[in-house]
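Quick question, first post here. What does this chain look like in 3D?
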Amino acid sequence: MSISLRPSAASDESFLFELFGAIKERDLEHTNLTRTQRRHFVRSQYDARKKHYNKFFDDAEDSLVLKEKKKVGRLMLQRKEEEFRIIALEILPDYNGEGIYESIIQDIQTEAKEMGKPVHVQVEKLGGWFDMLSALDFEKTGETEAHFQMEWSGERA
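> Answer (accepted):
Ran it through. Tokens below.
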């Protein structure tokens, strides 16, 4: 499996919206919204998140995840002086279970370890992120009603 990253560009906007929509569609499957209403809702959520990312994470590297040169996801990563922070890691649902998440996170861990930095991430409580990250030696450092904050320090690796 050949996984690579490349910087996202303005021309990738339609893919990024498609990716966001594919992930959000699962959340909206069991609502009474029509297809058109779901599309408008997803668009408004996408635009709000984009605005949030631009405001608070403008220094993050925004990359497309490629599998065999095909666009399959997105990684937003901050490389700060004191830490690495995963802002977003999203893969099209059709590619879940192929080890792409784990491969990317392990690459981040390797780089962070070489630089002596921890890796931080905030994940939703619903879904399999907590278990996957725990298996990759991340530890829970805090939580809110909807999220866990997790850290990998490299000490157990």
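The beta strands are 3-7, 61-67, 70-79, 84-91, 119-124, 139-143, 147-152.
The chain has a mean pLDDT of 93.
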